User: Fold Deoxyribodipyrimidine photo-lyase from Bradyrhizobium ottawaense.
Amino acid sequence: MRTPLTTPSAPVIVWFRDDLRLSDHPALHAAVKAGAPVVCLYVLDEAAGRPPGSAARWWLAQSLRALGAEIATRGGSLVLRRGPAAKVVAELARESGARAVHWNGIAQAPHQAVERQLEAALAKLGIDSQSFPGDLLVQPSAIRNKEGRGLRVFTPFWRRVLSLVDPPKPLPAPKQLRPGPKIASDRLESWKLEPTRPDWAGGLRKTWTPGEASARTRLRDFLKHTARRYVGDRDRPDREGTSSLSPHLRFGELSPRQVWHAARFAADEDPVLGPGIEKFLSELGWREFCRHLLHDHPDLGTDNLQTSFDGFPWKGDKKALAAWQRGHTGYPIVDAGLRELWHTGVMHNRVRMVVASFLVKHLLIDWREGEAWFWDTLVDADAGSNPANWQWVAGCGADAAPYFRVFNPQLQGEKFDPDGTYVRRWVPELKDMPTKLIHRPWQATPIELASAGITLGKTYPQPIVDHAKGRERALAAYAKIRRS
Ligand SMILES: Cc1cc2nc3c(=O)[nH]c(=O)nc-3n(C[C@H](O)[C@H](O)[C@H](O)COP(=O)(O)OP(=O)(O)OC[C@H]3O[C@@H](n4cnc5c(N)ncnc54)[C@H](O)[C@@H]3O)c2cc1C
Assistant:
């Protein structure tokens, strides 16, 4: 056992995780308040929790760069290390003679296991450890039913969140960081988070600027310009009707309580924003709901929440899966969504629901296949929201859409992309199609197709499954598990 160092020069290590920001960072705030030199540390630990997919790795690299630059402007530096986090953090604490290690908790079983290991390792070294709440509006322990379990229906869940007091006010970013001892850091490039050969990240670079500063700008712009139209536009993939904050929230470049307070403040200042803000906050509530579900069901990404689905007769159709992944299904709204995803690392929420429904219902492909594809290609891929939403669409999740509700992709397109603007943007081979046919090119006459420059089956695919037949097949499969 080592005697703890309590000299004024003994630093506090702030272990950054899914909270790549300086403002409203309780662990950092407390370290700075203690007047200690601060060592800012990020550990790439791919064994703790689900390893990020390719698009999220790209985001992580940009976000760490942005964080490092913000820390540097305040006189500090960001130390990068790789390996099992509990071991790496404890070793660094010993090496640097740290008096304490601070972090913001992540309410997910594998991360909590690492936190417990670290606490034990630090205790052995006589080094203090402090965990702060950070990634949720309300801790899961605060929302339990009579049996002590989490809620599985969104509306009562959200009512309970709203009935609790407002989350604490966000904390300011430190103006200055007292630098800690000089500590060797990995080079970010050595982690190979970004693609090189081939470099497929051009579309991501064009679409996004990761980092806290950009997250704050997006939030401000959303509240100023978009929130007033949110109720009417949020389901329209052809419009910029939502906040695009999801990857920033995923990496903690903004905390949910910063979003909460900024949104509430905006609505107080301008009551016209009220309905839009309430709806927007309830979407933030879905993020919270999904994370609480993951807390209570660590196997959310692999196991059906409703076990009646365990015997579901999924089809392992590799060819159909590949057509779906590449956006070659012959259904324009589905193809547009999957191509938007490939190019930008996100997909509009309405279209996520349509493509997910198409995969699990029309193609009878296991939701886990779609979830895995999203996990690899989404910059906002989230261990709670992704599987929870897939299970919701498939009908096997919490508060799930009933399995018998099968989206008709043509009607969804006509309703939510009425002029075909979204489809024309992402499926350029259909750009000259008349609007009335853009969501159903298979019904166009040979003359209409020829004048739009389309040869079905060559320049654009025929539908890989007929909607009515696909629907019937899905309902028959559903009937099987209901019978059993
Ligand atoms: C099959 C499927 C998979 C999904 N996977 C993810 C995922 O991996 N990560 C992710 O963040 N979202 C996921 N979503 C939810 C949703 O599509 C995105 O959060 C939303 O499109 C992000 O856009 P936005 O930031 O403009 O949202 P806004 O409409 O501006 O909403 C504000 C915030 O609320 C949260 N939010 C909104 N809708 C949902 C929702 N249904 N579930 C959970 N949180 C929500 C997000 O954090 C979002 O940034 C998924 C939805 C579906 C149907």
User: Anything to note?
Assistant: Strands lie at 12-16, 38-44, 78-82, 100-104, 128-132. Residues 1-5 have pLDDT under 50 and may be disordered.
